[in-house]
Amino acid sequence: MTPDAQRDQPASVPGPDTARGPAPDQELSFQIRSGHAPRPAWVEIDLGQLRRNFALINQDKPAGLALLSVVKDNAYGHGAEGVAREAVAAGAVMLGVNTLQEGIALRNAGLTIGILVVGERHPDELPFCIQHGLTVSVGDLRIARLLDRLAQEARCCVPVHLKVDTGMSRFGIRWDTAADAATEIRRLPGLVLEGMMSHFAMSDEADKAFALQQLSRFEQVLAALTARQVRLRYRHLCNTGGFLDLPQAHFDLVRLGILPLGVYPSQVCRRILGLQPAMTVKAKLVTVRTLQPGDTYGYGMRYQAASPRRIGVLPVGYGDGYPRLRNEGAVLVRGKRAPIIGGVAMDAIGVDLTDIPEARLWDEAVLMGRQGVEEISAHDIAQWGRSVSYDVLAGWRARLPRIQVEEGTQP
Ligand SMILES: *Cc1c(COP(=O)(O)O)cnc(C)c1O
Predict the structure, then answer these.
(1) What is the whole-number distance in angstroms between the Cα of residue 199 and the centre of ligand 1?
(2) What is the value of pTM for the model shown?
């Protein structure tokens, strides 16, 4: 037990509530039989739901449109290998990662499909890209020339996608000189210019003005290349927001990260019927007790009971990636919302169970996901924590065991 948890749980005599759970020896024998050290807080990844999401996206997208599955940052916390395998099974033509290490890990896991490493590369990384057969996103001619030299020395030909900066101003060659860059890259014998890409700064919000401007800049580059008889296998601009709301920007391929996970990038973009989150985060109530009027809960005494309150504690906190909320937010217990009381600690979250009298010690609570008809979405947690759904999904720490399940969250 961490010092934090010790301090959060005074060694008082347990209240009468503790007697109402399953017999302790039953629980213990189950843990011993299961063969691995259990933790009463975990992340479930529903592979069946992931599969359904990919199938729904395939039904939704135009037939000729290719899919690149973005599995960077461990597929936003869902497990890169598992998501990558579902993507390949669903017909994805490529995978996308951000770091060299992420690409190498997928190769080591036995995936042989094209892997595009997005973002910018440092020269030191290039030999490893070649060695592991990764497709390099090139946004700088110096990197292109260096990669060409290394590829020739290794007697191989490296596939590259030219990254065009159409207004994001992070990576890539500015659109007004990108056609010249593409022409030069095409002449480098160690490289194969397989694609050209750009990235939207704002594709998932109602105002599409800047996205359309970026699209028009991308089209300018393509027109210049067509005039020079340069043809590319994959022209791509869309992330999830663009895929959903800007069909005129689809080109040959779309790069989808969050959508197959069943989560939308924003509250306003188009919905696909049946798409559901693949991730659920759960924890068991490890103490249930009654506060008397005037009793306080947790660090800083941020919560004080005004009347007798029945509360529970979940053994999970900001050390697991939950935002450090204070008297805000809720979890689901017995299909009902239990409000968070006090401050979220590193290892403990207190919840008010007064209005859920049927709640019992060791009940399963849902921090993110569905329970019965209620749901707490990544967007809900993002709103409470003043963040975005991407950050909430990817934010669950490795300390929480990942459990792959197959049953599906839909009835
Ligand atoms: C992360 C990323 C994506 C995926 O974006 P989603 O909104 O999750 O679909 C696509 N393209 C690039 C270049 C990215 O970095």
Answers:
(1) 8
(2) 0.90
Q: Which CATH superfamily is domain 11-43+278-405 in?
A: Lyase, Ornithine Decarboxylase; Chain A, domain 1 (2.40.37.10)
Q: What is the mean pLDDT for each group of 10 consecutive residues in the chain (411 residues)?
A: 40 41 45 70 97 98 97 97 98 98 98 97 98 98 98 97 97 97 98 98 93 98 96 97 98 98 96 98 98 96 97 98 98 98 98 98 98 98 97 97 77 39
Is 299 part of the annotated catalytic residue set? yes
CA of 394 to the centre of ligand 1 (A): 13
Å from CA of 361 to ligand 1 middle: 41
The residue whose CA has the least distance to atom 8 of ligand 1 is 257
> Choosing from 72, 163, 208, 282, which is the catalytic residue?
72
The domains of the chain are located at 11-43+278-405, 47-261
Q: Which atom of ligand 1 is nearest to the CA of 98?
A: 15
Task: Identify whether 61 is a catalytic site residue.
Answer: no
Domain 11-43+278-405 and domain 47-261 have a common topology: no
Instruction: Return contacts of 234-238, CB within 8 angstroms, 24+ apart.
Output: 234/66, 234/94, 234/161, 234/194, 234/195, 234/196, 234/197, 235/195, 235/196, 235/197, 236/68, 236/161, 236/195, 236/196, 236/197, 237/166, 237/197, 237/198, 237/199, 237/200, 238/200, 238/203
For 47-261, CATH gives 3.20.20.10
